[in-house]
Records
---
Amino acid sequence: MGRLKQLRIFNGVLKDKASLIKTTLSTKRQTSFIRRAILRATTHSSSSPPSSNRIDAVIASGNGSRPRACTCIHAIMDRLHGTRDTFVALKCLYTIHNIITKDSFILRDQLSIFPTFGGRNFLNLSEFHDDSDPESWELSAWIRWYATVLEQNLTVSRVLGYHLSSSDSKKNDKDKEEKIFALLSSDLLIEIDALVGFVQEISNVPNSLHLQRNNLVYEIVRLVSEDYRLIQREISLRVVELDERMTSLGVDQLTLLMSALKKFEDCKERLSLLFVNRKKNDGLWHLIGETKMKIETTMNKKAEEMALVRIIKRDETREWGRQPFRFTSDGSWLGLDRVSLTVSTVR
C-alpha cells in the first residue's frame, strides 16, 4: 500500500473519531444516537462491508416513529453526499440497500419519498469521482452503478405497488398469480417494461469485474444478485400470464411485449459475467425464447387476417362499382320493377 494511501486512511480514521466525539457532545440526544450508529457502519478505515450488527443498529435507530425514520434517512444521505471517499460512499449505499431489503416498512417508506423533489435520481451520484488513486477511480464507477441500481429498485417498487423484498413480494406463487390474473394486459406490459429496465441497469455493471475480489464489492454483488433472483420470478409470472392471453392481445401490445423480451435477452451475456454461475435460471430463458416464437407466430397470423380483410373490402368496393345505377327520365331506378299505385277516392 502506498504511503499516500496510508496517510489518507489515517486521515479518514481521524475524521471518523472527530465526528463520533462531536455527536457524543451534541445536546440532541436522539439525533446524535442515530448519527453515531451511521458513522460506525460507514467508516473510512476498512474496505470490508459493515457487519450485520452495525447494519441492524442503524435500522434499529430509525425504527419506532416516523420522525426518527426521517432523521435516520436524512443522516445517511448527509453522510453519503458529504463524502468523496469511495469506501464511505459504498458503505452508505450498502446500508441503504439493507434498509430496502429488510422488512423495515417505516424506513423504506421514508427512503421512497426522499426527497420529495428528487425524482428518479434522488441519490444524485452520477458525477461521483474519487481520483485519489487508480483503484478509487475504478470503484467510483461501481458507486455510480450501485446508486442507479438502488434508484431503479425503488422505481420498480412504485410501479408494482410493493417492494421486491417485502412480504407481499414473497407471497407464494399461487397468491401472486391471482393478483396478476386480475390486472389488465396493459398494466402487465407496464410492469414487465419496468422490471426489464431494472435488469438493464444491473447489466450496465462496470467493466472492472475483477474488483469483486474486494470484500465490500463482493457483498454488494451478492445483494444485487438476490434482487435479480426476485426480478426473474416477477418477470416469469407475468410472461406466463400474457402468454395465456396471447390471442386477445392487439398488435401494438404484442410489439411492446416482444421489444421487452428482446431487451431482457440482450442482458443475458452481461449478467452471466457479473453473476458467473449464480442465478442462471435456464427455465426462464427457455420460457422467454418460446414466448418470442409464439408472439411472432401470432403476429404473422394477425397480419394475414388483416390482409385478408383488406382484400375482401377491396373486392366488395369493386363489385359495388360495377353495378349499373341507371335511372329513367322520371327518376325511377331501372333495377327495380315499377309498380303503379292507384289512389282510391272511395270513402
---
Amino acid sequence: MSAFVGKYAEELIKNAKCIATPGKGILAADESTGTIGKRLASINVENIESNRQALRELLFTSPSALSFLSGVILFEETLYQKTSDGKPFVDVLNDNDVIPGIKVDKGTVDIAGTNGETTTQGFDSLGARCAQYYKAGARFAKWRAVLKIGPNEPSELSIQQNAQGLARYAIICQENGLVPIVEPEILTDGSHDIKKCAAATEAVLAAVYKALNDHHVLLEGTLLKPNMVTPGSDSPKVAPEVIAEYTVTALRRTVPPAVPGIVFLSGGQSEEEATVNLNAMNKLEVLKPWTLSFSFGRALQKSTLKVWGGKKEEVENAQAAFLGRCKANSDATLGNYTGGTGGDMAAQSLYEKGYKY
C-alpha cells in the first residue's frame, strides 16, 4: 500500500514545504522544564515560570529575527503562554509567518539487555494530545530518538526499536494534522572516526525510512532532523568540507527525494561550527533534492542567554545576538555564510556527554 492520505494530506504537504523554505530554519525552543533550568542556572537565573516566559518572549519578539525562521518548536507550557502584553505566543509566531510546533515525546528509557541504549516513550494518549495541540495552533511536532556509537552499538535492536517508534509517532501526527519531524539523533559521544559515524548514520536512516514506508507515512508531509556526520567527541576534528561530504553522501544514499527538507540538529557543536558545517553542505556541488537547513536549540540561543543574563536592560542586546545567529544560519542554508558572526562567544563548544533534552 502507498502512503496514507487522510483529510490533512494537502495541509501537511503545504506546511512541510513551507518549513523547508530555503533561507529559513527552525528555532528549537522546546527544552523541558528541567533542561531549561540548566540553561537558566548557567546565567544564575531561577527556574520559575515567569523567567522561562521572559526568555521565550525575548526570542519570539526579537525584531527581524523571525524573518529568518520558518518554524519554532515549543514545549507544552510555552504553547499556552503569552507575551507580557497578553498576546499568545502562537499568535506572535503566526503573525510573523512562523509555524508553531510542539515537542510530543516524553524522554528516553533504557532498553533492557543493552549497553545503555535507549528508546523513546510518549505513546500514551499521543493521538489525543496531537489533536489538542492542533486545536491550540501547533502545525508540526517533534519526537527525539537517541542512538549511540560504541564497540557493538548502535545494536540492531536499538535501530529497529527507534525506527519503529519514529514511524508510529509520525503516522499518529499525520492523522491529527501535525507534520512530524523525524529525529533519529546519533550522539557524538566517543572516540570513533567520521567513517564509523557515517556507517551508523546510513544504517539508522535506512531503517527509519523502511519503517516510515511500512507505516504508510506520507513523506511529502514530513521533515528529517538528523545529526551531522562528524568524528566522535574524543576524536580529532576534521574540516567542514569533510563533514559536508560525509553527511550529504549519507543522506543521498538513504533519504528519499519526496522529503521536502532536512533540518539538522546542532548536537553540541559550537554556534559557529554548526553554522560553518551547514554552509559547507549547501556549497557542495552535488544533487541535493531536499532543502538542507537547521533546527537548532543551543546553537541559536547560547550567546543570547549569556548576553541577557536575566536582566531587562540587556534584552535589546540579547535580541541583537539572537538576530546575528539567525541571519548567519539563514545565509548558511544558501551557502552564503562568510563566518565570524558572534566572535569568540560563538566559538565555544556546547557539548554535553549523553545529552538529555
---
Amino acid sequence: TGGIIPTVAQQLHRENIERVVQEALERSNVDPSQLSAVATTVKPGLGLSLGIGLEFSQRFVRQHNKPFIPIHHMEAHALTVRMLQPVAFPFLVLLVSGGHSLLAVARGVDDFLLLGHTLDEAPGDTLDKVARRLSLIKHPQCSTLSGGQAIELLAKDGDRMRFPFRTPMGQTYDCCFSFAGLRNQVTLTIMKKEEEEGIEQGTLLSCVNDIAAATQHTVASHLAKRTHRAILFCKANSLLPSSSPALVLSGGVASNQYIRKALSIITETTGLRLLCPPAKFCTDNGVMIAWNGVERLREGKGILPPNVDVCYEPK
C-alpha cells in the first residue's frame, strides 16, 4: 500500500515492453508498416521508466522508418476526454495523480495556460503515504488495494469531523496546491493516537476509518477551493467560453468518488460541466498517449523524423 519503487518499475518495463508491444500489434491485427507514427511519453515522470520506453521507441521507429511523436504525460491526461466525447477548446482542467497536481486552461493540442501546481507533493502521494503510515496493508479489507483506494474505502465508514485537519494554504490567494503540511498534521495525529492506545507503529489503530475520512475530506476540500478560485479567475478574464464551459477532471486521483463529488458541488455552483473520463482512463494508460499522438498528428504538431535524438525529462 503506497507508491512505486523506481528500480523495480524499470526492471519490469525492461522485461515486458517488447512482449507488450508485440501483443498489442497482434491483437490489433496491425503490422508495423501500417502505423502512421509512434507516440511515447518523454516527460514528466520517473526517469528510469521513461528511459526504457524512449530507448525502445527510438529503436522501433528507426527500424520501421516511422515518424516519432514525443508526448507530455500531463497533456495526455488533459486531452483524454476528447477521445470519448466532443469537447471544444478552451476548457479548464484539473489533473490530480500520484506524481502531479495542476490546474490549467487547455487552449489547444499543444497550448496550455498553467494556473496552479503543487508546491511540494501530489495528492495521490499524500494519500499513499498516509495509508502506509496507518499500515492499511494489514487491514483485511485493504490488502489488495493501493493506498488511495484503501483510504477511500475506509473513509466511507469514518467520521470526517473527528479530526479537524486544517485545509492547506488558507491565507494564500492563488491556485497552487500544497499537501506536505496536511500529511504532517495527519502523522502527528497518528503518533498521538498510537501513544493513547499504547500500540507501536505498524499496528492498526482503532480509529483508522476516521483518520482516513478526515484526510480524504481535507484533500478534497483543498482541491475544491483552489479549483473554485481558478474558475472565478477564468470567468473574470474571459478564458472560458460563455456557453457551456467545462472542467475536465483527470489523473489517477480523479477516480476517487468523494473528490469527484466535492468538485461537482463547485461546478454546479459556478455553472460549469464537470467531465471525468472513466476510471480506467484516469489512471496512467497507454491509450491516452496514443490519443495525444493522434491529436498531434492531425494538426501536424511536434512530429519528428525517426533519426532525431530525443531526451526524456523526469519531473
